Amino acid sequence: MTRKERYSIVVERFERHMPSPKTELHYKDPFQLLVAVILSAQCTDKRVNMTTPALFAAYPTAADLAAASSEEVFSFVKSISYPNNKTKALIAMARKLVADYGGTVPDDIDSLMTLPGVGRKTANVILSVVYNRPTMAVDTHVFRVAERIGLTTGSRTPLATERTLTANLAPDIIPRAHHWLILHGRYVCRARRPLCEECILTDVCRFRQKENNETK
Model-level pTM? Predict the structure, then answer.
């Protein structure tokens, strides 16, 4: 099977079984999504969604968050992983957002990455989800699933995975593909004990084929 054929099959299956994928983080505007994504680093979306309603009610805008104290913000995010670091990042992000961008979340990767707490992955999430740009945020799920099903081969870094995926997917597909791979990795192609019997890609999955060959 050629790379082009594999990509075509994967896209067709996901389009049929998951036509309208979207982020599981809850948000009402770009600022809220940016806060939620920063909080979601090494933390589940479920936990973030339990935390953000009170946080957003207390600080509905970047200006509100920028004026908050560390103690105040920490009280809202203390159940999140690495609460001290994320408290500092959120306040610093909000202050720079207000000072440099008038409180408006930027729509280009270079500007986004000037914000404290925002790396390439977070910036790509914002560009993809908010602005529908053809950017691929590579988290552990995307990295794992892309390699297992053969969309990448021997990829060593998230950036390498990102470049391979964006080079082989149509630009209009990329925002959805980001969610396809995350959700598939979260619920089916799990790191431990993947649910191969429930997978829509078993017949073309390189990981599954390798497992079958090893048991023969």
Answer: 0.90
